[in-house]
Amino acid sequence: MEADQSASKEAESCIDLLVIVLDTNPSQHFVRQNPQNLTQILEAVIAFGNAHLMQKAQNKLAVVSCSHHATNFLYPLPRRQVELRQMDGQYEAFNLVEKTVKQQLGSILMNAPRLSAPCESLLAGSMSMALCYISRLQRNLAPGVKMHSRILVLTGSNECASQYMTFMNVFFTAQKLGITIDTCALDKTLSLLQQGCDITSGQFLKVTQLDGLLQYLLWVFLPAPQIRHKLVLPPPPKVDYRASCFCHRELIDIGYVCSVCLSVFCKYSPICTTCHTIFKNPGPLPIKGKKKKKTDKQM
Amino acid sequence: MADDEQEDQKEYRWETGYEKTWEAIKDDEDGMLDGAIAEIIQKAKRQRQAQKTKQNRLGMMRHMFVVLDCSESMSVPDLKPTRLRCTVKLLELFIEEFFDQNPISQLGLIALKAKRAEKVTELTGTSRVHLKALESLANVSLTSEPSLQNGLDLALKSLKVVPSHASREIVIIMGSLTTCDPVDINLTIDELKKEGIRCSVISLSAEIHVARYLTQQTMGTFGAVLDDAHFRDQLMSQVDPPPAAKTQHNSLIRMGFPHTKNEVEGKDAPLSMCMCHIENLEEPSELTTTGHHCPQCNSKYCELPVECQSCGLTLVSAPHLARSYHHLFPVPNFEELPFEAMPASSSDFTSDVRECYGCAKALGQGVDKVADKVVFRCGFCKQFFCVDCDIFIHDTLHACVGCNTIPGVDGLVYQQSSKSDQVDAHPGPSKQRGQFAM
């Protein structure tokens, strides 16, 4: 009995923070197909956010939108409170989430510059903003209060190699701070975010049917990471951590790494094309490489 | 104190003029000291960051020996509870941080016990081994004097065989004021200098001439600690990779990038044992289907990075390399501006609220009014940040939030522009960024 009580007390003093990073870029494939889809996704996200708040009174929620032109907080907005009235006996906080998110997203989309050509979503940046927000809440915690934070990314965009460094910095920061990154891919499989989920031991899920989005969210992403191992969830996908070489952009098993700038090459070259370092002892190495390649093929 | 000395080697604190330290603290209009104190705290927060100088070539693959004094002087309780306990606790933090920031580096531990040097752990790349060894060190009996020379010789012997492209370092933590050496220590110092091994000393008692001389000769740093917080700072400053030594040879290193074989032709991979635990009697190897297979000899390892035991290939994963990139492309320091210089956010209807771009904290309000007296602006995206975000971005995140969320401001454009004036610089990260694109 006592153990039960202490456990429940511990759970009470513990805050679960969920930050949803929602990709609202209009150039996503499913939005271009049918603009109604975005509304449907938004409804699912709001319902999911409310479900998270409903689990425990201490739970916190934040929603960040990543659009083609800017990243904004949709919820919470500390400076501007939406007028609030109880509706049909619904808990006010749920209504607040819905009103704030919809109003804020509406004003962002209205003020957005027109999109002439499809452009990428700067998801890595939005995630870094979410990390800044989490680290602020973490700093301001009252003593004795614990907070578990996680980030859920919902996106239908393609990922872009130009954000690789930022993505990696975000993943490592999250790993260091003990933040779980979950990803719900709405369109394509995203290998970079897959790596991020693997590094931070989060869940990656590719949704095959948009209609069932809310069900997917409630099933896979609602349980806190601490209790997920007790549930039957989709198995982790196979993550490929191989590097691709600088020279041909091909995935390699064995490569050469510059000791100064850590660039990866698939063949030995006497000069680094990235940092122009001239390498010593080029003699025995290429022969070695040949030999190794042969053994490689044999296997 | 140590910092002052580094600036001017000849002048000691007690040789300088009389300092009226209390005059630095001034009370504000209300007669409160909070403002002045907050300012001092803030300055200290940013100090380490500002000290970081941009390096062009770093010794990224580090081989470091930590030499720990385990002599009688380590039982002195001036650092609480004792010097040794405090050191062991801080070293635990240091080792975690070291491997976090330098994933393809190796570390070894040497203890100086009763005039002898004893290698506690060999050079390895996993923190677990060191942390375990540290635990046992905490209860070691502290007797007699240390021998600096024996410690250096032992480290030198191991570091001599390390490949020449690696950066080689020795960090010595000395509690004793004396050293008991078999022969002339200058011979060892000359040898270290010749080999280009960087030696740094952290003294827990006071400045020692021979230690200072050693660090000067080998381009290391010397520090005498004031208290445990200062000790921590001194130790953590060793986490950042040092500039590449002149003797360091540049070379291309063969590395393997293992991929997990979860499925072979539709079936689960066969059960196999990993090489890393196969000879470990305490934690025997377990039969599993997962693991990282060496692309050269196909032996299995459960953790990366590791050097293959059967073929000697260094096995890493792409994120391990990526983890080190922030040392090469640091976020430039932000500009410090007074709070008044910050324009109110235009998207807002109540126009007098200004908020931090990163964490959306409303600035200049409530209890943090004093801390928000200054704001920070990124020179590239022109966004304003609070002091905490500034520290978070530079120390932990290593990516500017503004530059990465606003299209048009290429997130990494500064790396190109700031490096273009250096001949040997990276021609631009655009290539590097796409390196692991899949």
TrEMBL record, chain A:
Keywords: DNA damage, DNA repair, Metal-binding, Nucleus, Transcription, Transcription regulation, Zinc, Zinc-finger. GO terms for molecular function: zinc ion binding. Gene3D superfamilies: von Willebrand factor, type A domain. Belongs to the TFB4 family. It is found in: Nucleus. This is General transcription factor IIH subunit 3. The keyword DNA repair applies. One of its GO terms (cellular component) is transcription factor TFIIH core complex. It comes from Drosophila mauritiana (Fruit fly). Component of the general transcription and DNA repair factor IIH (TFIIH) core complex, which is involved in general and transcription-coupled nucleotide excision repair (NER) of damaged DNA and, when complexed to CAK, in RNA transcription by RNA polymerase II. In NER, TFIIH acts by opening DNA around the lesion to allow the excision of the damaged oligonucleotide and its replacement by a new DNA fragment. In transcription, TFIIH has an essential role in transcription initiation. The keyword Zinc-finger applies. Part of a TFIID-containing RNA polymerase II pre-initiation complex that is composed of TBP and at least GTF2A1, GTF2A2, GTF2E1, GTF2E2, GTF2F1, GTF2H2, GTF2H3, GTF2H4, GTF2H5, GTF2B, TCEA1, ERCC2, ERCC3, TAF1, TAF2, TAF3, TAF4, TAF5, TAF6, TAF7, TAF8, TAF9, TAF10, TAF11, TAF12 and TAF13. Component of the 7-subunit TFIIH core complex composed of XPB/ERCC3, XPD/ERCC2, GTF2H1, GTF2H2, GTF2H3, GTF2H4 and GTF2H5, which is active in NER. Pfam families: Tfb4. One of its GO terms (biological process) is nucleotide-excision repair. It comes from the Eukaryota.
From TrEMBL, chain B:
The keyword Ribonucleoprotein does not apply. Keywords: DNA damage, DNA repair, Metal-binding, Nucleus, Transcription, Transcription regulation, Zinc, Zinc-finger. A zinc finger (C4-type) spans 294-311. GO terms for biological process: nucleotide-excision repair; regulation of transcription by RNA polymerase II; transcription by RNA polymerase II. Residues 419-438 are annotated as: Disordered. Residues 63-239 form the VWFA domain. Pfam families: C1_4, Ssl1. Belongs to the GTF2H2 family. This is General transcription factor IIH subunit. It comes from Drosophila simulans.
